[in-house]
Amino acid sequence: MEIRLYLQMLKRGWWIILLVALIAMSASLALSYLAVPKYRATARFIITPGTSITEGRDVINSLDTLDRRSVVATYAEVMNSERILINSANFLNVASTQLEDYTFQAVVLPDANVLELTVTGPSPKVAAELANTIGYQTILFTSGLNMSYDINFLDTAAEPVIPFSPQPARDAGIALVLGAILGAALAIVSEQIRIPLEAYRQRLRIDSTTGVYNKRFFRQVLEDELTKDPDGVLSIGVIELSGLQDLKETLPPSGLQYLLKKVTGILRKELRGNDIIGRWNEVSFAVLLPTTPGAAAKRTLDRIYQALSESVTLSAFDATIDLEPIIGGALYSSNISAQELIEKAENSLEQARSSVDSPVRLWEMNNPFWVQKEA
């Protein structure tokens, strides 16, 4: 289940993955083409027993002595020393500061009495010359110490032709893969951040008891509709359940919640998919009917009235409740504001409260408080 959830997160955040991968690849290519190429020259040296330890002794014993890695490691340390570098710089007739862009390292090859010296720097010619000179100076220095072993060139360094760094194609490929991995991580993190924020926003919009919009967000939706299409057609209605006025103080919270959810279900059944429901106050709801003219809005409000007029049975409390709905509505016209439209609907509701024969009233600009008596 978790794998499927992560896959869904990656699917929704595909654009983040693609964007980060492309940015990483572009940055890698830019850095590659701006970077100074570096070349690597390599020389190899072999260490053998000197004549001083083979005279009067078995050659096999001499080779056994050489198998001790400390002997070969000593030559590697000599080759890596600052003294050898200074001697090499003097031999090449250059200042040590001119070699600051070059690095060198001698390592012992596994299972062999061979040293490998690698010199890296911006000039292929200087890199090769420096590798051979360091080797030559090491040979001179150790021979002067009368050491028991000899070091000699196995392979001299050749001038490299192709730089080992940067390699735009390789680096761009690696950057693309790493960017995709980073993008995937960001996509998952962004989804994990977005989901709680979305849930929090939903809590700010939704009435916890009924699951419909609260009054504040309902008003915001209405204002957005009028802003989006100021010349459009829409109607609103405020539905008051006067039968709940006395019950809200005496009925247990669970019973009141059941009634309100029952009303919510009835409203959803009687409205279209794009109609909007909001909780107006403790005993009333509001409905927004987009693209609905006066006659159609009146028919919808009448249907809601008829559906809510039926008694609701509370089996848990062995009671039957009459909701006693009254409805006031208003048809948007003449570019009036959202607040004015709400006031017209509430005025219509007030008119419906005071009228025994007309429990549903709809305000219309050319026909205020248009009344259609129920049959």
Mean pLDDT: 84
E-strand count: 12
What are the segments in which pLDDT stays under 50 over at least 5 consecutive residues? 371-375
Instruction: Profile the largest sheet.
Output: 6 strands, mixed
- Figure out the total of helices: 13
Question: What structural class results from the helix and strand content?
Answer: alpha+beta
Radius of gyration using CA atoms only = 44 Å
Characterize the structure shown.
The chain is of the alpha+beta class and 375 residues long. The chain is rod-shaped and about 130 Å long. The protein has 13 helices and 12 strands. Strand 2 (103-108) and strand 3 form a beta hairpin. It has helices at 2-12, 14-34, 51-54, 59-66, 69-79, 82-92, 124-143, 168-205, 215-228, 247-250, 253-270, 294-308, 338-353, and strands spanning 39-49, 103-108, 114-121, 149-155, 234-241, 276-281, 284-290, 312-314, 319-321, 325-331, 360-363, 370-371.
